[in-house]
Specification:
It contains four helices and no strands. It is an all-alpha fold and 453 residues long. The C terminus is likely disordered.
Amino acid sequence: MSKEQLEKHVVRLREELDREREERNYFQLERDKIHTFWEITRRQLEEKRAELRNKDREMEEAEERHQVEIKVYKQKVKHLLYEHQENLTELKAEGTLSVKRAQKDHWAQEMELRKDMRSLKVELKEQELANEVVVKNMRLKQEEEITRLCNDFERQVKEIEAKYTKKMQVLRDELDLRRKTEIHEVEERKNSQINELMRNHEKAFDDIKNYYNDITLKNLALITLLKEQMEEMKKRENHLEKEKADVLLQNKQLKEPLQQAQEQVSELQKKLAHYDKDKEALTNTKARLKVTQKELKDLQWEHEVLEQRFSKVQAERDELYQKFTKAINEVQQKTGFKNLLLERKLKGLLSVLEKKEVELSEVFAASNLDPGALSLVSHKLEDVLNSKNTTIKDLQLQLARVCKAHDDMLQTFEAKLTAFGIPLDNLGFKPLASPVLGQAVGQGPAGLVAVPT
């Protein structure tokens, strides 16, 4: 992946992190609302229970007052009976005292007193009956009032329970619908991100594969061309050495005729008598000497030209060798940089995953959700974590394939250098093997790297 794609991926991860935080804040607000509704309902229920306790206490107080009134009426009746008894005793005493004075009056008074006593008894019975009727009526009214209050309180409690049960059901249905919608949206985003990641990874893998294939083909072609050029140079060098040896041999062979000619010239100078005859031979010898010297100069010039060409070929060979080493260094740096980027990206994803797990644990610890909602959220987060783990494993597999391709390319280069007779110590650097996160990679082809278990 290129730097821009990595930056875009980092931006997408940050946006996803922001969305997760917004969802966490939203769920926390919903939890606070539910908790607030529950607190309000609990307070209202406690108030109603307090009112019911107050009504029960009022009923008990009314019963106590009624019992007190009954006791008061009984005390009054006892007082009346006691007064009546006292009146009777007084009357009897007066009767016994006044019998002697006026028996007739006594009998008349006695009759009147008896009449009064009968009337008092009748009134007493009537008062007792009236009191019993009043007590019965008050008891009936009290029982009716208690029954009515109980029925009213039970009806109010049932209405409140039905009302808040309906509200809780509506709120639960709304939350379930919202949660299902959010889960569906999260799954759609997850599937789109997975598809996009798979397409990007396949495209990046194809690009890397084509890039390394092109580099390998170019390097093989360059190595083949260099090998052919070196073979041609060796052949030319051998040919030039042979020509040089031939020229030196001819030069040696021409030196002897030159010495012989010089000896002949000395002999001819001595033999002035034979000057006319030997003049033509001397002229021919000088001409041959000039031709030989000219040929020697030409051979020397050709030798210098061949030496210059040989030095030029050596310089070209050194330049091509430097280009070859530079190309190997660039390929190694690029592969090392890409491996480093992939490892950093993997470490960043692992750190983000750990942060999300910590935040999720904090959210679970802070939120007092019911077990059903908690299990649903846990399953949802486990699915998201499984998808992220699958993505991380795919990235690790792709990193292993890239590292394996890099190692295969290094082995191919080393084999080619060994085949061309170039020692590895002359490279000027040590090839860097790229282990995948501390794991050993097999010796098979790069396309057969297995998923790390």
